[in-house]
């Protein structure tokens, strides 16, 4: 049996599921908190919201991706819900990015501009 570079401990009877990187219970994991603060600070660099359309790695399905929002997790989830409702589509909010199923770049851009944000279209 080979051991992985990260150690391999994934569950403990005392702590439950374990993070393989920091070897702490997932509720006390330090990696997720560091990643969340690092990702949030990197996306807030210039204050410009970038909207793009992507289909790579999604089985050919198109999604509208919104990056660069300077919101916390709860604010991001609320804005994501409003955008999904506006577009009449599904989607998700993860890692500081809002993904909306389908090509809704123009609609999302118009809504964010009306709410006072600086918005740019990125990609093709």
Tell me what you see in this structure:
31% of the residues lie in helices and 22% in strands. With 124 residues, it is α+β, with helices and mostly antiparallel strands. The protein has two domains: 36 residues, no CATH class; 78 residues, 2-Layer Sandwich (Translation Initiation Factor Eif1), CATH 3.30.780. Strands 5-6-4-3-7 form a five-stranded mixed beta sheet, covered by helices on one side. The protein has a two-stranded antiparallel ribbon with strand order 1-2.
At a glance:
By secondary structure, this protein is of the alpha+beta class. The chain is 31% helix and 22% strand.
The biggest beta sheet reads: 5 strands, mixed
Q: How large is the radius of gyration?
A: 18 Å
Name of the level-1 CATH class of the largest domain: Alpha Beta
- What's the total helix number? 3
State the CATH topology of the largest domain: Translation Initiation Factor Eif1
Mean pLDDT: 81
Proportion of residues in helical segments: 25-40%
H/E order of the elements?
Answer: EEHEEHEEHE
Shape annotation? elongated
CATH superfamily of the largest domain: SUI1-like domain
Strand order of the largest sheet: 5-6-4-3-7
List keywords for this structure.
single chain, 124 residues, alpha+beta, Translation Initiation Factor Eif1, 2 domains, 5-stranded mixed sheet, two-stranded antiparallel ribbon, 3 helices, 31% helix, elongated
């Amino acid at each position: 049996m080979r051991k992985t570079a990260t150690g391999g401990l994934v569950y403990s009877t005392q702590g439950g599921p374990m993070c393989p990187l920091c070897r702490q219970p997932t509720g006390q994991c330090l990696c997720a908190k560091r990643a969340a603060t690092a990702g949030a600070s990197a996306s807030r660099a210039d204050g410009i919201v970038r909207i793009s359309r992507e289909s790579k790695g999604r089985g050919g399905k198109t999604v509208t991706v919104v990056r660069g929002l300077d919101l916390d997790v709860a604010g991001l989830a609320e804005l994501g819900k409003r955008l999904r409702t506006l577009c009449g589509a599904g989607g998700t909010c993860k890692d500081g990015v809002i993904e909306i199923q389908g090509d809704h770049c123009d609609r999302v851009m118009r809504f964010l501009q009306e709410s006072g944000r600086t918005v740019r279209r990125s990609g093709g």
